[in-house]
Amino acid sequence: MQREFDVAIIGGGPAGSTAGALVKKYDKAAKVAIFEREVFPRDHVGESQLPAIGPILEEMGVWDKVEAVNFPIKIGATFRWGKTRDLWDFQFIEKERFVEQQRPSKYEGQRLLTAFQVDRAIYDKILLDHAEELGCEVFQGCGVAKVNFEGDSVESLELSDGTTARAGCIIDCSGHVGILRRTLGIEIEQPTSLQNVAFWDYWQNAEWATEIGVGGTFVQVMSLGYGWIWFIPLGPTRTSVGLIIPASYYKKTGQRPEDLYAKALKEDERIAYLMRNAKSEGKFATTKDWSFVSKRHAGANWFLAGEAGGFADPILAAGLTITHVSAKEAACTAIELRRGRFDPDWLKQQYEARQHKRLRNHIRFADFWYTSNGQFQDLQDFTSVLAKESGLDLDPKEAWRWIAQGGFIDEDLRFGAGVYTLETVKNFRHYLRDLEVDSVLEQYNVVHLNLDGAEKVKRAVYGYGEVQEVEAYERDGKILPLTHVIPPIFAMLQADSTLQGVINKMFEMVHHSPFDQGQKNLLLQTSFTALESMLRDGWIKGSFDTRYPRIKTNDVGGGLAWSDETTLGSAK
After folding, report:
1. Who has the most CB within 10 Å: 8, 256, 358, 515?
2. Cα separation of 74 and 527, whole Å?
3. What is the rounded CA–CA span in Å between residue 471 and residue 480?
4. Strands 144-150 and 137-140
5. What CA–CA distance (Å, rounded) separates 107 from 113?
């Protein structure tokens, strides 16, 4: 039997369910099929999320369903990693600011800043069921047995139940299996020599290291001399605990994975204490954690989304974020191809470039983390080679330049690098490695736009079932999209060349905005970060003039002030 669809999705994990749900939400007439070889629920590694997933779940209409399960709320992570063995916290929101509130709650307020730690057996089923409720035809226990293609076009999918499926658009969300990628013979890039293996199991009755408010906690990331342990509470009694070590080290030991895993859990005193009363579920598993990027992410009538298109080391906890974001972008692109508003080649080129850049950035930052960990005492040869191959054998000043080389602004107007905000990246110098970070806002008080040598280009921005074509400036691999707070900052710079004048206008803009106080504070913070990022990326040229005051850190009570003792404005 042959079935015809508008969009066929291979894989029913988070990538497949996200893509399917969003296509059906915004293009109700589309016939969408999701083919999943397994029958849910089933366990899957990759449970720790980042806040960027929240708005996608909300857009899908599934955030409330996920919240209703009462998964632990991820406030951040506790690390033993970097310069010393001292523990340090990476926080999405300061734990002192996290207010205790009843659950389930809404996606608002402090929950905009946090993430979930999910039991994938439950989470993946919620998402797939939701896609089905929106109108996707979901086929569980029905894998793709063969892909028939002609040239670069996928002609049909032969399924394990004997059915043949044809579709105008195929999205491969099959994870590491990469069914389309492998069938079409698409090569991969391995930008790093970082090749790890992962061993993990699920445990009952391990203690949470930290409990904040109702359901708030921190993931634990503990370094050993030869690798690191993750400790992720998934619910009141269930915890995912894993060990990551270099594949070369594993081979050299000659030990069984189970023995290395058991040894590691006993070696780390913090993990051993948390697990002193825990019992294994007997689901020990292993996998390769080899970072890669597909050389192609789109073709004549197909797209790769999620791990089918690439994988970055789990130290950044970015796997699910990359998966959800790429699936959203694939869905928007598929919808626009059906609408016919844009040149199909431009849509595919934009999608492909976005995936490639995102994955390579995450892989770069994984290299940065591994080469910045002084706790890997048994891996010094390994990290030394990695540092040289990735260009990270650097002094503090050069290390900061290495971080900054890709720019601090991306197409979606996020300010920072990798998964981190600009402020977080600057704070790496306290924990990971020495970085010589100059304070550009305190250094300059005269500012001018600098577009010399920049090319004006069109870039895709994805959201709410569509692709928007946004003008942007591009120069030396850095991008400046003309959207959100950037056009107002342009106008401010054209009206006043003093930093004080620009910042005063920024406060006026925020003051007159129609938002509540929390949103005004966020707008002001975003505007300041945008201004600093534009200075760091060279879109603003700064200088110093003794006639004008400059920003300085206020010694009393923190915050910022002007050197002439006047204070900065207010967001109220």
Report:
1. 8
2. 27
3. 9
4. unpaired
5. 10
Residue carrying the six token digits 């204070």: 567
- The total of other beta-carbon atoms located within 10 Å of residue 105's CB is 15
pLDDT at 90 (0 to 100): 92
pLDDT for res 555: 44
Q: Which CATH class is domain 2-339?
A: alpha beta
Separation in Å, CA 537 to CA 406, 416, 498: 9, 11, 19
Residue 220, phi then psi, degrees to nearest 5: -110, 130
Judge contact between 534 and 502, C-beta under 8 A: no
Sort residue 477 into left (φ over 0), alpha (ψ -120 to 50) or beta.
Answer: left
Q: Quote the distance between the C-alpha of residue 210 and its chain's center.
A: 24
Task: Judge residue 108's burial from the number of C-beta atoms within 10 Å of its C-beta, 0-12 exposed, 13-18 middle, 19 or more buried.
Answer: exposed
Structure token digits, residue 140: 């569980």
* Strand spans (E) along 326-443: 416-417, 420-421
Per-residue pLDDT at 568: 67
Q: Which two tokens stand for residue 415?
A: 């300010």
DSSP secondary structure, 196-228, as one string: EEEEEEEEESPPPS--BTTTEEEEEEEE-SS-E
Nearest-angstrom CA–CA distance, 449 and 540: 5
Looking at residue 565, what is its pLDDT? 65
The reported pLDDT for the residue numbered 503 is 93
Q: Give the residue among 452, 443, 440, 541 at the shortest CA–CA distance from 497.
A: 541
Q: What is the largest CA-CA distance in the chain?
A: 80
The model scores a pTM over 0.90:
yes
Stretches where the chain sits below pLDDT 70 are: 553-560, 565-572
Residue that the structure tokens 């013979």 belong to: 185
- DSSP H helices in 456-549: 486-495, 499-511, 517-536
Q: Single out the residue of 421, 308, 395, 429 nearest to residue 359, CA to CA.
A: 308
Give CA–CA dist 403/398, Å, rounded: 9
Per the structure block, which two tokens stand in for 336?
A: 């626009």
In whole angstroms, what is the distance from residue 11 CA to residue 173 CA? Answer: 5
Going by C-alpha positions, the residue among 523, 503, 510 that lies closest to residue 566 is: 503
Q: Three-state SS for 279?
A: strand
Distance (Å, whole) CA 546 – CA 527 = 25
Break the chain into its structural domains and give their ranges. 2-339, 394-455+482-572
| 465 and 452 Cβ atoms separated by less than 8 Å | no
Amino acid at 99: V
Pairwise CA distance, residues 441 & 446, whole Å: 10
Q: How far apart are CA 549 and CA 124, in angstroms?
A: 55
The closest alpha carbon to 113, from 486, 522, 422, 428, belongs to 522
Q: Which two tokens stand for residue 209?
A: 């290291």
How many helices and strands in the chain, by DSSP H and E?
17, 28
Helix axes 517-536, 422-431, angle to 10 degrees: 70
